[in-house]
Amino acid sequence: MPITNYDKDHLFEKLMTSSPFLIYIYDFEEKKAVFSSKKIVSLLGYTQEDMEAMGNRIPETILHEDDLVNLETTQNKVRGLKDGEELVTMSRYRRKDGTFGWFKNTRSVFLRNDKGAVVQELGIVQEVTEAINVEHKLMDSESRFRAIFNSTSDFNFFVDSNLTIITLNYAAITYIEKYTGFSLLPGDNLEQAMPPEMLADAKAAMQKALAGETTDDIKQYNAFGGKKIWFRAKFFPVYAESSKTVTGVNINMRDVSNAFESRIALEQQNAQLKEIARINSHEIRRPLSNILGLAELLSHYRDSLPDDVRSLLDLLYDSSHELDDVIKKIVRTAATQS
Question: Residue 284 contacts by C-beta under 8 Å, 6 or more apart in sequence?
Fold first, then answer.
Protein backbone atom coordinates (compact mmCIF):
# COMPACT_ATOMS: atom_id res chain seq x y z
CA MET A 1 0.00 0.00 0.00
CA PRO A 2 1.52 3.36 -0.98
CA ILE A 3 2.18 5.92 1.76
CA THR A 4 -0.04 8.98 1.44
CA ASN A 5 0.99 12.56 2.23
CA TYR A 6 -1.17 12.36 5.33
CA ASP A 7 0.73 9.27 6.48
CA LYS A 8 4.04 11.05 5.86
CA ASP A 9 2.97 14.10 7.80
CA HIS A 10 1.63 11.93 10.62
CA LEU A 11 4.86 9.90 10.75
CA PHE A 12 6.96 13.08 10.74
CA GLU A 13 4.92 14.58 13.58
CA LYS A 14 5.23 11.35 15.59
CA LEU A 15 8.99 11.31 15.12
CA MET A 16 9.26 14.94 16.20
CA THR A 17 7.18 14.47 19.34
CA SER A 18 8.79 11.20 20.42
CA SER A 19 12.40 12.27 19.89
CA PRO A 20 14.35 13.00 23.10
CA PHE A 21 16.12 15.84 21.24
CA LEU A 22 15.04 19.31 20.20
CA ILE A 23 14.78 19.37 16.43
CA TYR A 24 14.51 22.63 14.50
CA ILE A 25 14.80 24.02 11.00
CA TYR A 26 16.41 27.45 10.67
CA ASP A 27 16.02 29.54 7.53
CA PHE A 28 19.10 31.67 6.74
CA GLU A 29 17.20 34.02 4.42
CA GLU A 30 14.28 34.66 6.77
CA LYS A 31 16.68 34.55 9.78
CA LYS A 32 14.26 32.62 11.94
CA ALA A 33 13.25 29.11 12.92
CA VAL A 34 10.55 27.89 10.55
CA PHE A 35 10.06 24.76 12.64
CA SER A 36 10.89 23.56 16.14
CA SER A 37 9.72 20.40 17.87
CA LYS A 38 7.66 20.43 21.04
CA LYS A 39 10.76 19.30 22.97
CA ILE A 40 11.72 22.97 23.18
CA VAL A 41 9.13 23.42 25.93
CA SER A 42 10.68 20.86 28.30
CA LEU A 43 14.24 21.60 27.23
CA LEU A 44 14.27 25.41 27.28
CA GLY A 45 10.80 26.39 28.47
CA TYR A 46 9.82 28.31 25.34
CA THR A 47 6.45 27.73 23.67
CA GLN A 48 5.80 27.84 19.94
CA GLU A 49 4.25 31.27 20.50
CA ASP A 50 7.46 32.42 22.25
CA MET A 51 9.53 31.28 19.28
CA GLU A 52 7.26 33.06 16.81
CA ALA A 53 7.42 36.21 18.92
CA MET A 54 11.22 36.18 18.82
CA GLY A 55 11.11 36.30 15.03
CA ASN A 56 14.59 36.90 13.62
CA ARG A 57 16.05 37.64 17.07
CA ILE A 58 16.19 33.99 18.20
CA PRO A 59 20.02 33.84 18.25
CA GLU A 60 20.32 37.09 20.23
CA THR A 61 17.64 35.93 22.67
CA ILE A 62 18.81 32.37 23.29
CA LEU A 63 22.57 32.25 22.71
CA HIS A 64 25.04 33.24 25.43
CA GLU A 65 26.85 36.44 24.45
CA ASP A 66 30.23 34.65 24.32
CA ASP A 67 28.80 32.12 21.85
CA LEU A 68 26.84 34.69 19.86
CA VAL A 69 30.06 36.21 18.50
CA ASN A 70 30.81 32.88 16.79
CA LEU A 71 27.36 32.56 15.17
CA GLU A 72 28.29 34.02 11.78
CA THR A 73 31.36 31.75 11.53
CA THR A 74 29.24 28.73 12.45
CA GLN A 75 26.55 29.55 9.87
CA ASN A 76 29.19 30.00 7.16
CA LYS A 77 30.54 26.53 8.02
CA VAL A 78 27.02 25.09 7.68
CA ARG A 79 26.64 26.75 4.27
CA GLY A 80 29.87 25.02 3.24
CA LEU A 81 28.68 21.55 4.23
CA LYS A 82 28.08 18.87 1.66
CA ASP A 83 24.88 16.86 1.73
CA GLY A 84 25.20 14.19 4.43
CA GLU A 85 27.94 16.06 6.34
CA GLU A 86 27.41 17.28 9.90
CA LEU A 87 28.80 20.10 12.01
CA VAL A 88 28.77 19.62 15.80
CA THR A 89 28.91 22.71 18.01
CA MET A 90 28.77 23.25 21.78
CA SER A 91 26.97 26.38 22.98
CA ARG A 92 25.24 27.86 26.00
CA TYR A 93 21.51 28.48 25.55
CA ARG A 94 19.40 30.73 27.74
CA ARG A 95 16.31 29.04 29.15
CA LYS A 96 13.10 30.96 29.54
CA ASP A 97 13.76 31.31 33.30
CA GLY A 98 17.05 33.12 32.52
CA THR A 99 19.43 30.31 33.45
CA PHE A 100 21.96 28.90 31.00
CA GLY A 101 22.75 25.32 30.06
CA TRP A 102 25.25 23.63 27.76
CA PHE A 103 23.82 22.13 24.57
CA LYS A 104 25.27 20.01 21.78
CA ASN A 105 23.93 20.96 18.36
CA THR A 106 24.38 18.63 15.39
CA ARG A 107 23.78 20.72 12.25
CA SER A 108 23.31 19.58 8.67
CA VAL A 109 21.94 20.87 5.36
CA PHE A 110 18.15 20.66 5.13
CA LEU A 111 17.33 22.68 1.99
CA ARG A 112 19.19 24.27 -0.93
CA ASN A 113 17.91 26.76 -3.49
CA ASP A 114 17.99 26.28 -7.25
CA LYS A 115 21.61 27.43 -7.33
CA GLY A 116 22.65 24.83 -4.77
CA ALA A 117 23.19 27.35 -1.94
CA VAL A 118 22.11 26.26 1.53
CA VAL A 119 19.07 28.18 2.70
CA GLN A 120 17.95 26.04 5.64
CA GLU A 121 19.77 24.01 8.27
CA LEU A 122 18.48 21.11 10.33
CA GLY A 123 19.56 21.17 13.95
CA ILE A 124 19.32 18.37 16.51
CA VAL A 125 19.93 19.72 20.00
CA GLN A 126 20.80 17.69 23.09
CA GLU A 127 21.44 19.11 26.57
CA VAL A 128 24.88 18.17 27.92
CA THR A 129 25.07 20.51 30.93
CA GLU A 130 25.66 17.72 33.44
CA ALA A 131 28.41 16.14 31.34
CA ILE A 132 30.13 19.52 30.86
CA ASN A 133 29.94 20.25 34.59
CA VAL A 134 31.47 16.85 35.37
CA GLU A 135 34.21 17.51 32.81
CA HIS A 136 34.94 20.91 34.36
CA LYS A 137 35.11 19.35 37.83
CA LEU A 138 37.51 16.73 36.53
CA MET A 139 39.65 19.45 34.97
CA ASP A 140 39.62 21.39 38.25
CA SER A 141 40.56 18.24 40.15
CA GLU A 142 43.34 17.50 37.68
CA SER A 143 44.61 21.08 38.02
CA ARG A 144 44.66 20.80 41.82
CA PHE A 145 46.34 17.41 41.59
CA ARG A 146 48.93 18.80 39.18
CA ALA A 147 49.61 21.72 41.55
CA ILE A 148 50.18 19.32 44.47
CA PHE A 149 52.11 16.92 42.23
CA ASN A 150 54.53 19.67 41.21
CA SER A 151 54.80 21.38 44.61
CA THR A 152 56.44 18.43 46.38
CA SER A 153 60.23 18.13 46.50
CA ASP A 154 60.00 14.36 46.01
CA PHE A 155 60.56 12.94 42.52
CA ASN A 156 57.33 11.40 41.21
CA PHE A 157 57.06 9.30 38.09
CA PHE A 158 53.99 7.54 36.73
CA VAL A 159 55.24 4.80 34.40
CA ASP A 160 53.87 1.86 32.46
CA SER A 161 55.07 -1.72 32.85
CA ASN A 162 58.13 -0.99 30.66
CA LEU A 163 59.23 2.07 32.70
CA THR A 164 58.03 4.39 29.95
CA ILE A 165 57.14 7.71 31.59
CA ILE A 166 53.47 8.69 31.40
CA THR A 167 53.93 11.78 33.54
CA LEU A 168 56.51 13.20 35.96
CA ASN A 169 56.69 16.22 38.23
CA TYR A 170 58.90 19.31 38.06
CA ALA A 171 61.18 18.15 40.89
CA ALA A 172 61.97 14.95 38.98
CA ILE A 173 62.74 16.83 35.78
CA THR A 174 65.15 19.30 37.42
CA TYR A 175 66.92 16.74 39.64
CA ILE A 176 67.47 14.21 36.86
CA GLU A 177 68.76 16.91 34.53
CA LYS A 178 71.13 18.28 37.21
CA TYR A 179 72.72 14.97 38.21
CA THR A 180 72.50 12.91 35.02
CA GLY A 181 72.31 15.43 32.19
CA PHE A 182 69.17 13.76 30.82
CA SER A 183 66.10 15.90 30.07
CA LEU A 184 63.25 13.48 30.67
CA LEU A 185 59.78 14.05 29.25
CA PRO A 186 56.59 11.94 29.06
CA GLY A 187 57.18 9.20 26.53
CA ASP A 188 60.85 8.76 27.47
CA ASN A 189 62.05 5.64 29.25
CA LEU A 190 63.21 6.05 32.83
CA GLU A 191 65.90 3.39 32.34
CA GLN A 192 68.28 5.86 30.67
CA ALA A 193 68.50 7.97 33.85
CA MET A 194 69.23 5.05 36.20
CA PRO A 195 72.66 3.62 37.07
CA PRO A 196 72.88 -0.15 36.45
CA GLU A 197 72.47 -1.22 40.09
CA MET A 198 69.50 1.13 40.61
CA LEU A 199 67.90 -0.11 37.37
CA ALA A 200 68.16 -3.73 38.53
CA ASP A 201 66.48 -2.88 41.84
CA ALA A 202 63.83 -0.79 40.04
CA LYS A 203 62.91 -3.66 37.74
CA ALA A 204 62.56 -5.98 40.73
CA ALA A 205 60.35 -3.43 42.52
CA MET A 206 58.32 -2.94 39.31
CA GLN A 207 57.52 -6.63 39.17
CA LYS A 208 56.22 -6.52 42.73
CA ALA A 209 54.18 -3.36 42.07
CA LEU A 210 52.64 -4.83 38.91
CA ALA A 211 51.63 -7.79 41.07
CA GLY A 212 49.90 -5.41 43.49
CA GLU A 213 52.64 -5.07 46.13
CA THR A 214 53.96 -1.75 47.46
CA THR A 215 57.71 -1.54 48.20
CA ASP A 216 59.70 0.98 50.25
CA ASP A 217 63.50 0.75 50.29
CA ILE A 218 66.51 2.91 51.20
CA LYS A 219 69.80 2.22 49.48
CA GLN A 220 73.02 3.96 48.43
CA TYR A 221 73.92 4.05 44.75
CA ASN A 222 76.87 5.18 42.70
CA ALA A 223 75.17 7.86 40.65
CA PHE A 224 76.39 9.26 37.34
CA GLY A 225 79.67 11.09 37.89
CA GLY A 226 80.76 8.77 40.70
CA LYS A 227 78.83 10.53 43.47
CA LYS A 228 77.36 8.25 46.12
CA ILE A 229 73.72 9.11 46.87
CA TRP A 230 71.25 7.58 49.32
CA PHE A 231 67.77 7.19 47.81
CA ARG A 232 64.47 6.23 49.36
CA ALA A 233 62.28 4.68 46.65
CA LYS A 234 58.62 3.70 46.93
CA PHE A 235 56.80 1.79 44.19
CA PHE A 236 52.97 1.92 44.29
CA PRO A 237 50.64 -0.05 42.01
CA VAL A 238 48.07 2.12 40.19
CA TYR A 239 44.73 0.49 39.46
CA ALA A 240 42.11 1.15 36.79
CA GLU A 241 38.99 2.83 38.17
CA SER A 242 36.61 0.21 36.83
CA SER A 243 38.60 -2.88 37.82
CA LYS A 244 41.35 -4.19 40.04
CA THR A 245 43.77 -4.36 37.13
CA VAL A 246 47.13 -2.66 37.65
CA THR A 247 47.56 -0.16 34.81
CA GLY A 248 50.87 1.37 35.85
CA VAL A 249 53.21 2.18 38.72
CA ASN A 250 53.78 5.39 40.64
CA ILE A 251 57.43 5.78 41.68
CA ASN A 252 58.16 8.17 44.53
CA MET A 253 61.86 8.87 45.12
CA ARG A 254 63.75 11.14 47.49
CA ASP A 255 67.42 11.98 47.93
CA VAL A 256 67.94 11.19 51.63
CA SER A 257 71.72 11.53 51.61
CA ASN A 258 71.81 14.41 54.10
CA ALA A 259 69.37 12.77 56.49
CA PHE A 260 71.05 9.38 56.20
CA GLU A 261 74.56 10.80 56.64
CA SER A 262 73.33 12.70 59.71
CA ARG A 263 71.95 9.45 61.02
CA ILE A 264 75.29 7.73 60.45
CA ALA A 265 77.08 10.59 62.22
CA LEU A 266 74.66 10.27 65.15
CA GLU A 267 75.28 6.53 65.31
CA GLN A 268 79.02 7.17 65.34
CA GLN A 269 78.55 9.72 68.12
CA ASN A 270 76.52 7.21 70.12
CA ALA A 271 79.26 4.64 69.62
CA GLN A 272 81.78 7.13 70.98
CA LEU A 273 79.54 7.81 73.97
CA LYS A 274 79.32 4.10 74.61
CA GLU A 275 83.12 3.89 74.50
CA ILE A 276 83.38 6.82 76.92
CA ALA A 277 80.91 5.10 79.21
CA ARG A 278 82.94 1.91 79.01
CA ILE A 279 86.16 3.75 79.82
CA ASN A 280 84.50 5.58 82.70
CA SER A 281 82.92 2.48 84.11
CA HIS A 282 86.00 0.30 83.87
CA GLU A 283 89.23 2.19 83.30
CA ILE A 284 88.57 5.10 85.68
CA ARG A 285 86.26 3.41 88.13
CA ARG A 286 88.79 0.70 89.04
CA PRO A 287 91.47 3.08 90.44
CA LEU A 288 88.76 5.26 91.99
CA SER A 289 87.45 2.21 93.84
CA ASN A 290 90.95 1.66 95.19
CA ILE A 291 91.09 5.27 96.43
CA LEU A 292 87.65 4.91 98.05
CA GLY A 293 88.80 1.71 99.71
CA LEU A 294 91.96 3.32 101.09
CA ALA A 295 90.01 6.34 102.36
CA GLU A 296 87.57 4.02 104.11
CA LEU A 297 90.45 2.04 105.64
CA LEU A 298 92.22 5.17 106.92
CA SER A 299 89.02 6.42 108.48
CA HIS A 300 89.35 3.63 111.10
CA TYR A 301 92.54 5.34 112.40
CA ARG A 302 91.10 8.84 112.19
CA ASP A 303 91.15 9.53 115.95
CA SER A 304 94.84 8.76 116.22
CA LEU A 305 95.80 11.09 113.37
CA PRO A 306 96.90 14.74 113.74
CA ASP A 307 94.26 17.39 113.00
CA ASP A 308 95.76 18.48 109.67
CA VAL A 309 95.90 14.85 108.46
CA ARG A 310 92.31 14.27 109.55
CA SER A 311 91.27 17.33 107.48
CA LEU A 312 93.08 15.97 104.44
CA LEU A 313 91.48 12.56 104.96
CA ASP A 314 88.01 14.12 105.11
CA LEU A 315 88.73 16.09 101.92
CA LEU A 316 89.99 12.94 100.17
CA TYR A 317 86.90 11.01 101.25
CA ASP A 318 84.45 13.73 100.08
CA SER A 319 86.26 14.32 96.76
CA SER A 320 86.37 10.60 95.99
CA HIS A 321 82.62 10.21 96.52
CA GLU A 322 81.95 13.34 94.48
CA LEU A 323 84.02 11.94 91.59
CA ASP A 324 82.17 8.64 91.95
CA ASP A 325 78.82 10.42 91.57
CA VAL A 326 80.07 12.27 88.44
CA ILE A 327 81.20 9.00 86.81
CA LYS A 328 77.88 7.32 87.57
CA LYS A 329 76.02 10.28 86.02
CA ILE A 330 78.17 10.07 82.84
CA VAL A 331 77.46 6.35 82.54
CA ARG A 332 73.72 6.87 82.97
CA THR A 333 73.65 9.70 80.39
CA ALA A 334 75.57 7.65 77.83
CA ALA A 335 73.25 4.71 78.38
CA THR A 336 70.11 6.77 77.75
CA GLN A 337 71.52 8.41 74.55
CA SER A 338 72.77 5.21 72.97
Answer: 327
Last residue in a domain, options 255, 290, 313: 255
- Shared-domain flag, residues 238 and 271: no
Contacts 24+ apart (CB under 8 A), 81-88: 81/107, 81/108, 81/109, 81/118, 82/109, 83/109, 84/108, 85/109
Number of domains in the chain: 3
Which of residues 255, 273, 296 is at a domain's end? 255
Q: Are residues 15 and 48 in the same domain?
A: yes
Q: What is the pLDDT of residues 15-57, one digit of tens each?
A: 555 567 888 999 999 988 888 888 888 889 998 888 888 888 8
pLDDT of residue 338: 55
Reported confidence tier of residue 8, pLDDT bands at 50, 70, 90: very low
Give residue-wise pLDDT tens across range 207-257. Answer: 999 999 999 999 988 876 677 888 899 999 988 766 778 889 999 998 888
pTM for this model (two decimals): 0.45
Query: Which residues span the domain enclosing 111?
Result: 5-133
Whether 148 maps to a domain, the answer reads: no
In 3D, which of 161, 163, 169, 165 has the Cα closest to residue 145?
169
Q: How are strands ordered across the β-sheet holding 118-127?
A: 32-36, 22-27, 118-127, 100-112, 87-94
Q: Please, what is the angle between helix 307-337 and helix 257-278, to 10°?
A: 150
